[in-house]
From TrEMBL:
Membrane-crossing segments per the record: none
Record's protein name: 2-amino-4-hydroxy-6-hydroxymethyldihydropteridine diphosphokinase
Pathway as given in its UniProt record: Cofactor biosynthesis; tetrahydrofolate biosynthesis; 2-amino-4-hydroxy-6-hydroxymethyl-7,8-dihydropteridine diphosphate from 7,8-dihydroneopterin triphosphate: step 4/4
EC number(s) stated in the UniProt entry for this protein: 2.7.6.3
Stored CDD domains: HPPK
Domain of life: Bacteria
InterPro entries: Hppk (IPR000550), Hppk_sf (IPR035907)
Length: 162
């Protein structure tokens, strides 16, 4: 079974779409762990604030199949392939880690925004502080403790899992 981490984000009807993502993931990963939900300002464009969180799970699903599943869940929740990278979105599901695999296809692993964005790194470090980043060669807790980007502010929000 592979250890996986998936980031969830939304800035359009954000509580609804985050909840829908969790509902959609549950049948595939019934024992997933969900981090706290954090609100943050949009990064890279002017837009509504985002809700972000991370899910940790174990799976025997092959990497390519998992990537297809995440894209399908996004599409089922109003995401379109025409959406620009830095734009509002109903749902963004990004695979962050698949065990310690390092690759660029079918997904960039580990995802480079782990070390760049507080809204990814903080929830990751919250639920898996001892997980080792295979490129940075540090644990997620160490990466979070070393993180320094005062431009990125985020705060926990009340959110009850479905």
């Amino acid at each position: 079974m592979a250890q996986i981490f998936i980031s969830l984000g939304s800035n359009v009807n954000k509580e609804h779409y985050l909840r829908q993502a969790l509902i959609a993931l549950k049948p595939y990963f019934p024992d997933f762990i969900h981090s706290s939900v954090y609100e943050s300002e949009a990064v890279g464009f002017a837009g509504n604030n985002f809700y972000n969180s991370v899910v940790a799970a174990k799976t025997d699903m092959p990497l390519a199949e998992l990537c297809k599943l995440l894209k399908k869940i996004e599409l089922d929740n109003g995401r379109t392939r025409e959406d620009k990278k830095f734009s509002p979105r109903t749902l963004d599901l990004d695979l962050l880690f698949y065990d310690d695999i390092i690759c660029d296809s079918p997904a960039q692993l580990p995802r480079d925004e782990i070390t760049k964005n507080a809204f990814v790194l903080q929830p990751l470090a919250e639920i898996a502080p001892d997980f080792f980043h295979p490129v940075a060669k540090l644990t997620l807790a160490e990466l979070w403790n070393n993180y320094n980007n005062p431009q990125q502010k985020l705060w926990k929000v009340e959110f009850s899992n479905p």
